[in-house]
Give the backbone structure.
Amino acid sequence: MPRATDLDNIAPDDPITPPSEPPAQNLLSPPSPHHKKKKKNISSPANNIREEIDKILYGAKNSFGSFQIKPLNFVFSEQEKDEQIILVMRQHWFTNVRWILFTLLMVIAPLFLVYVPILSFFPPRYQMVSVLFWYIITFAFAFEQFLSWYFNLYIITDERVIDIDFVNLLNKRFSDAKISFIQDVTSQISGFSQTMFNYGNILIQTAAEQTQFIFEKVPNPDIVTKVLQQLRQEEEQEAIEGRLR
Amino acid sequence: MPDFSAYILLFQKIVFVIGALIYLVFAIIIVRQVTTMTKNVNDSFNPFLIIFSYLHLIFAIFLVLLTLFVL
């Protein structure tokens, strides 16, 4: 008959009895789909908060890539392994209108050379190269403006708020704060265009190293504020349950 | 009497060539910038940006050649 080895818990002569309950699942093996399904149906406060966040987010209007809800193909270099991206924001598309109009003006400007012949003292070849120079500078201006819009990102994950700024050609700034460090969130919509197109600033006060985050001219600021509130609640819930990462 | 117009044209050509070279450096910086950015932030539109930045660089090289050989 097999003997017990753990003398602290079981007397040496006690026989080992087979367990009456089914053995606990091996932690290293992946849970069965049945188990997963069962877990999903559990209505915990954290799940309720996630459902609430989804409900808030999917009520938002699409804004030409400046408000991406849980994007599938989006990854950033500082992303942690289990970190889930909830929202990726850029400045509202309307903020690009000014440089787009300026670019269009630059594109049509050489047409006015017919009326204002300022290059007429150049030989024709030089005139042609000058116009080519003008157009390539126009393209570079537009491309640079687009890049600075495209790569200035505000990211909300289930753990952090992140601000990635590419200030100019050679400067990149990355700042983040944990959701649990957020103390206060304020949204502000001011002016005609912001009211018209529903975009504005979000001011986030934190207890982290960087005490203030400003999400500038992002779409749907009221929705973002609500999402941040829900995420803070979730973090509080996790802290109560002792699941805080 | 010396032909001043030839000197003026030569001066203009030098200005254009220097301008095109400066622009070429700028185009190289844009390629570097886009490459760095796309490494940091991976999004579905990134391949187009990389293609655009290299097209821009090719155009800048073309401009240098144009100023050197056509002017």
User: Anything to note?
Assistant: Residues 3-8, 19-41 of chain A have pLDDT under 50 and may be disordered. Strands of chain A lie at 67-69, 75-76, 85-89, 153-157, 160-166, 172-178, 182-188, 199-206, 212-219.
